[in-house]
Structures are given as structure tokens and as C-alpha cells.
């Protein structure tokens, strides 16, 4: 950001969109749109999926060379209206057809002459965010040719196959709505256990608990999720959820289920254990806050008050996505990040955490480290 500030003055926001648009402007000073996008792809490391309109009224879209986050495009049935969306569902709900996904490192420009595509940067390691499959993507979106909810059903089947003893340990399945519902269906099909829809989500509370402050999180969960005592009282529960980040949301959910009379609570988690932060735009805690960075499944169970915690294996998770392992970003699970700066940040953050000097801020917010790392 230093060179940008020298050229354009102090950034007025902490938004990466401002940084990226100024980088584009810098490139446009001496060149055309493709060369400006090339400059962005060369100088900015990380995840970006960009859509814009230039001065000539042309719409353009590009995606970082690793393709960390999704970006797709489509058109209406007459081919008169083109649209870009982060997920295919953004097209279908507007009556548009999905054409394709923007390739990592590719630039698309729509002008009066039609659509032109240019591969600006090629050959970088593909690294699509694996957390999209477990949590972020809408279930009815299509990622890499697969409908997301089908992948989640397979996650559930995998969990059932990996834990054949569940039929002795639990009387029924419940799922944390809504991201875990599809996995619960797969788990139900695989194990034959009844799936009780006794944990329900408030239709109008849409805030996401894990990206809020602790106080807000409490309020959100209480308002958002309700547990039906009548169905779960005295029952041993196999609870399906998508992920455990800090553990605080799971802890509150388990407390609610115990208060409602749940006898035993065994958690089955579709996303493998999160052991390190995300540096690609998802505000996913520091090492100190991430429960999986510090504890294994048994310790986590004890901390959050569950009888057991069972994660889907990484191998089966990858298989269910249908993606090649080396085409996925698995950074927050394996601590192997697809880009060098993220690896440096992770090393530094872990070092600080182990020394006991990790602050409350995210590592990339620690101004004193910026120079040291870059
Ligand atoms: S580190 Fe995790 S959440 Fe972040 S982009 Fe990679 S897989 Fe997604």
C-alpha cells in the first residue's frame, strides 16, 4: 500500500477494494485495462474477484491467479444481458443462465463487440477456498460443475461411514441449520438414524455468528436458533455442524441442547479441524482464538461440553468436492497456504502466539509487522 499512498495520498478506508481500484488506476495511467489488471495480479497477493465498468462503458471481470474465491458469468436467454456473480445462484435467481466460471488469472471484457477473454496470468497453483464447500457457498450454487448441496450430502455420508458406531451412541440426528442440513440428510441416509428437525432457525435473523464479537454472538445465537425440548428430551443426539472455529458458538448450542434435555451430545463436523487463520479475506480468528489450533478433537469436546467431537477426514472431504487436492486452498486446515505472504504471516502469527505475545488484532493488522514481513 506504500507505493499507492505515495501516488494517490493516504487511503481513506481500510477496504481492500480501495487499494485494488487505486492499483488499477495506477496501471491505467500508462496502459490499457489488460495491462492494469496484469499489474494488479503481479503486485497484489491474495484473493480477489473483481467486477467493474470502465469509462467506455465496458463491463470487465477478473479473478486472482489462484482463483481463491468463486466468480462466474452468464446471460439471459436472448444473449442480450450479461451478468457476473460470485456464485451461480446470483444468476439463476435473476432468470439468467450460467455460462462458465472466470478462470484464475483471467480477464473478461464485455463491449459492443461482444465478450473477449484474455488469460492475463497463467500457470499459478489453483487454490479454490475449500471452506466454500462446507460453509460459505449457497447450497443451490454450482461450484466446479457440482451443486453445493450434493457435495454437502456426501460430506454427511462420509461422516456416517467414518463413524459406524454412531448407531449405538445416538438415538437421533439433529443438524445446526442451515448449512449442516444437507450433510445431516446424507448422514441419515448412510446410518439409518432418524433425523429430527428439532433445531430451528429464525427466518429473519440473518447475521453470521462466527464473524461477530462475543457479545453479539450470544445474542445472535439466542435469537437465531431455537431447540425443541419436546423432541430431544432424554435423547442421545448426533449433532451435525459445518465447522468449529472458536468453539464458542458450538458451546452455546450444546448448552441449549442440554437445557432442552439432550442426554448425550456427539458432534459430527463436515469441515476438517481448523488449525490456523485465513489470510484471504475471511475474518477467521487468530491462533489464540482458534480452538482447533490448540486442541485436538477430544480436548475440544471437553472444552465445549460435548460427549465427543468427530471431524470428517481431509481425504474424504476432498474426494466429496470432486476437486483435485492441489486445486484447493486448505490453508486453514493444513497451515500450507497457496501464497508466500500468507505463509510468512502464519509463521509470524504462530511465533507470536507461542511466545504469548499475540495481540487481539489480526496479524495483518499489526502495523509493526508490515515492514518486517513484506
Ligand atoms: S485459508 Fe481456509 S477459509 Fe481461507 S481461503 Fe483458504 S480454505 Fe478458504
Q: Can you put this structure into words, describing what you see?
A:
This protein has helices at 2-8, 16-30, 33-43, 88-92, 131-136, 148-162, 166-169, 181-191, 214-224, 229-232, 248-259, 291-294, 297-304, 314-321, 331-334, 340-355, 367-373, and strands spanning 49-53, 59-63, 72-75, 82-85, 97-101, 106-111, 114-119, 128-129, 142-143, 146-147, 172-175, 199-201, 225-227, 236-241, 264-269, 308-311, 328-329. With 374 residues, it is of the alpha/beta class. It has 2 domains: 2-124, Aminohydrolase, N-terminal nucleophile (Ntn) domain (Glutamine Phosphoribosylpyrophosphate, subunit 1, domain 1), CATH 3.60.20; 131-338, Rossmann fold (3-Layer(aba) Sandwich), CATH 3.40.50. The protein is 40% helix and 18% strand. The chain binds iron/sulfur cluster. Iron/sulfur cluster binds at residues 68, 129-131, 278, 280, 282, 284, 329-332.
Tally the helices: what do you get?
17
Kindly estimate the percentage of residues that lie in beta strands according to DSSP: 15-25%
Number of E-type strands: 17
Task: List the domain count as a whole number.
Answer: 2
Q: For the residues shown, what is the average pLDDT? A: 91
Percent helix: 25-40%
CATH C-level of the largest domain: Alpha Beta
Biggest sheet overview? 4 strands, antiparallel
Domain Glutamine amidotransferase type-2: 1-113
Pfam families: GATase_7
Protein name: Glutamine amidotransferase type-2 domain-containing protein
Keywords: Glutamine amidotransferase, Transferase
Concise summary:
The protein is α/β, with parallel strands linked by helices and 374 residues long. It has helices at residues 2-8, 16-30, 33-43, 88-92, 131-136, 148-162, 166-169, 181-191, 214-224, 229-232, 248-259, 291-294, 297-304, 314-321, 331-334, 340-355, 367-373, and strands at 49-53, 59-63, 72-75, 82-85, 97-101, 106-111, 114-119, 128-129, 142-143, 146-147, 172-175, 199-201, 225-227, 236-241, 264-269, 308-311, 328-329.
Amino acid at each position: 500500500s506504500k507505493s499507492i499512498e505515495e501516488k494517490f495520498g493516504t487511503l481513506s478506508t481500510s477496504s481492500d477494494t480501495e487499494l485494488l481500484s487505486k492499483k488499477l488506476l495506477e496501471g491505467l495511467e500508462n496502459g490499457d485495462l489488460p495491462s492494469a489488471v496484469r499489474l494488479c495480479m503481479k503486485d497484489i497477493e491474495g484473493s480477489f474477484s473483481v467486477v467493474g465498468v470502465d469509462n467506455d462503458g465496458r463491463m470487465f471481470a477478473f479473478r486472482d491467479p489462484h482463483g481463491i474465491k468463486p466468480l462466474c458469468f452468464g446471460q439471459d436467454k436472448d444473449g442480450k444481458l450479461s451478468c457476473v456473480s460470485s456464485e451461480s445462484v446470483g444468476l439463476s435467481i435473476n432468470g439468467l443462465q450460467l455460462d462458465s466460471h472466470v478462470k484464475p488469472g483471467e480477464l473478461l471484457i464485455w463491449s459492443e463487440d461482444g465478450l473477449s477473454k484474455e488469460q492475463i496470468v497463467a500457470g499459478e497453483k489453483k487454490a479454490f477456498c475449500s471452506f466454500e464447500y462446507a460453509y460459505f457457498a449457497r447450497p443451490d450454487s454450482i461450484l466446479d460443475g457440482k451443486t453445493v448441496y450434493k457435495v454437502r450430502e456426501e460430506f454427511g455420508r462420509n461422516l456416517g461411514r467414518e463413524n459406524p458406531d454412531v448407531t449405538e451412541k445416538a438415538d437421533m440426528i439433529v443438524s445446526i441449520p442451515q448449512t449442516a442440513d444437507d450433510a445431516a440428510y446424507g448422514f441419515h441416509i448412510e446410518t439409518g438414524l432418524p433425523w429430527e428437525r428439532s433445531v430451528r432457525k429464525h427466518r429473519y435473523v440473518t447475521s453470521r455468528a462466527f464473524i461477530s464479537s462475543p457479545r453479539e454472538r450470544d445474542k445472535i445465537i439466542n435469537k437465531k436458533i431455537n431447540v425443541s425440548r419436546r423432541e430431544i428430551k432424554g435423547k442421545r443426539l448426533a449433532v451435525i455442524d459445518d465447522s468449529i472455529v472458536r468453539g464458542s458458538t458450538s458451546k452455546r448450542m450444546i448448552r441449549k441442547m442440554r437445557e432442552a434435555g439432550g442426554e448425550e451430545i456427539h458432534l459430527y463436523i463436515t469441515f476438517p479441524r481448523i488449525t490456523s487463520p485465513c489470510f484471504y479475506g475471511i475474518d477467521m480468528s487468530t491462533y489464540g482464538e482458534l480452538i482447533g489450533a490448540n486442541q485436538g478433537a477430544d480436548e475440544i469436546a471437553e472444552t465445549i461440553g460435548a460427549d465427543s467431537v468427530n471431524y470428517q477426514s481431509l481425504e474424504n472431504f476432498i474426494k466429496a468436492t470432486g476437486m483435485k487436492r492441489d486445486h484447493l486452498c486448505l490453508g486453514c486446515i493444513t497451515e500450507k497456504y497457496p501464497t508466500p505472504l500468507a505463509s510468512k504471516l502464519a509463521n509470524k502469527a504462530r511465533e507470536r502466539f507461542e511466545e504469548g505475545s499475540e495481540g487481539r488484532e489480526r496479524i495483518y493488522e499489526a502495523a509493526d509487522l508490515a515492514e518486517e514481513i513484506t
